[in-house]
Amino acid sequence: MKIRTLLVTFVISTSPLLAWGGNPSITPGLWKVSIIMQMNGMTMPPQIIRHCITPAALKKPHGAIPLPPMSAKAACKVRDVTRHGNTVSWKMSCSGAEQMETVGTMIYYSAEHYKGRMKMTMTQHGHAMRMTQSIEGWRLGNCPK
Hints:
The protein is of the alpha+beta class. The chain has one domain. The protein is about 15% helix and about 55% strand. It contains 2 helices and 8 strands. Strands 1, 2, 3, 4, 5, 6, 7 and 8 form an 8-stranded antiparallel beta sheet that branches. A hairpin with a 2-residue loop joins strand 5 and strand 6. The longest helix is centred in the N-terminal third of the chain and has 18 residues. The chain is globular, with a radius of gyration of 15 Å. About 25% of the residues are buried.
């Protein structure tokens, strides 16, 4: 369960990263994100998260976006961020006690809807694990005050 929480946190923290810098972009507000994780041939039930994305969060360069809690134990670096039309791709590497390699792609269908996939390979307690996450986000409206 710790891994699942970690990866969900990663998705939420990188949503502004992927939208930063102009097109493709997303609209600030309250977002609903569905995350389906597949690991070791098993598909977990979808996890639905609601979170606010502020205009300030969308202005930060990817180096200023906070990484998930494991960043305290691992040095994580986002690299190779590329944008082609409505598609954003990236890679992330974490070293240290919790090593992880991530390759991801997001397709922005509009400023209020995106879909993506992340493939992760990580080593935890000396064991290699491979996971895939399917992600879909929809803007629901303005953030509650």
